[in-house]
Structure formats: C-alpha cells, structure tokens
Amino acid sequence: MKPVEINDLPTSVWLDINTGVFEPCVEISRRKVSDLAMMFADQEAVQQLIAQGDPVVYDIRYHPFQTSTSDMALGVSTIYPGKVGDEYHMTKGHFHVRMDQPEIYFCVRGTGFLLMESKEGDFQVAEWRPGTITHIPPQYAHRVVNTGPEPLIWVASYHLAAGHDYEPIIARGFAKIVVEKDGQPVFLPNPRRPNSS
After folding, report:
1. In-domain check, residue 110
2. Cis peptide before 64 (omega within 30 of 0)
3. Which residue of 36, 57, 119, 156 has the fewest CB atoms within a 10 Å radius of its CB?
4. What is the domain extent for residue 24?
5. Residue 9 lies in a domain
6. Among the listed residues 88, 67, 76, 68, the one whose alpha carbon sits nearest the alpha carbon of residue 25
C-alpha cells in the first residue's frame, strides 16, 4: 500500500457508478477464485475454476483521506456476477482490528446481500439494491454476496485506523452461505460450522 499523504484541504473524487471506477484512485486490489479458495464450500468447483483460468471475483478501489487531525478511507468494490459451484460470488469478509470501529456501505448498482455476524454469533442480513445504505456496527464481521446478473458495486467509508482482520473468517466463515436453488438465492448453514442453523 502506498504511503498516505497528509492533506488538510477539502478534497473530492469522481465516481462512475456504472463501472465502480473513481479518480483519483490510490490503489486497486483484485481478488480471484484462488484468493478466496478457502471460503467456498465446493472445493472441487474451486479447483476446476482455478484450472480454467482463475476468474476474477471482485475488485477493490481505494483512496485514503488523511489530514493532520483525522483519517478516513473510501473504498469502492465491484463483485462480478458468477458462482463457485452453487455458491454466489462474495467478498472475503472481515472484522475490524479496532473493535470500536463501524463502517458505512452504500450500494450503487446491482443486487445481493450484506452478511453481518458478531463475535457472539448474532447473524444479520441486509438485502441490497441500488440506493441501499447500511451502517455496520462495531464488532460485526461483514461480507457482501452478489446474487444478481450484473456487477454489484458499493461505496465503503471507514476510518483508516480500523484495520482489517480476516483470520476469524478464514478459520470459520459466516453462519450461512448463499447458494442458488431453482434460480433463487437460498441461505444454508455453513458446512464448515456444523452447529450453525
């Protein structure tokens, strides 16, 4: 990640809500199936997709806003439509390192779900369509799932100091997975967590 520059002046970026591209953009991260391999339930499908070219699941564009007295970050993510086996494309998901930090997500294109789960096991789902804004409270892990036929694009705003903790999600996932059954999204218990219902 590039060093964050201090800028005490008001600043703006321009976002194309149809593509998720914004300028200026400091960093772009791309996640392929191989980067999320441990997250999907159907490991045979994971290996087949990797062997067939390792398709992109989502992109993240990032811009920090840091002043001499504050910090914020802008992230714009795009999950491309698709599935791994029957499971829809999704983000890796994370807690914040600082457990007092919330986050705001604003869906600008596409349809899907925002999955949220506290460390105590409270599982919540927000259904997304363009215009949905969700406040993610502190201490809730969050993951986005694209269940539609087009890219799902959203804007994230959070403090740079919040940090990202992926390890609990890598180890256990979320309580539910989202799969396609008869052309519709269905929530199923996560097979990696046999006690989830």
Report:
1. yes
2. no
3. 119
4. 18-189
5. no
6. 76
User: How far is 92 from 191, CA to CA, in rounded Å?
Assistant: 17
pTM listed for this prediction: 0.93
Distance of alpha carbon 35 from the chain centroid: 13
CA distances (Å), origin 63, targets 10, 151, 159, 186: 14, 21, 12, 34
What total of structural domains would you count in the chain?
Answer: 1
Cα(21)–Cα(60) distance, integer angstroms: 10
pLDDT digits (tens, 9 = 90+) for 83-95: 999 999 999 999 9
| CATH number for the domain that contains residue 73 | 2.60.120.10
In the numeric block, which tokens belong to residue 51?
Answer: 């062997």
In this prediction, residue 24 carries a pLDDT of 86
Position 134 in a domain: yes
3-state secondary structure of 34: helix
Residue 12, SS3?
Answer: coil
CB 110 within 8 A of CB 153: yes
Residue type, 163: G
Q: Across-strand partners of 29?
A: 60
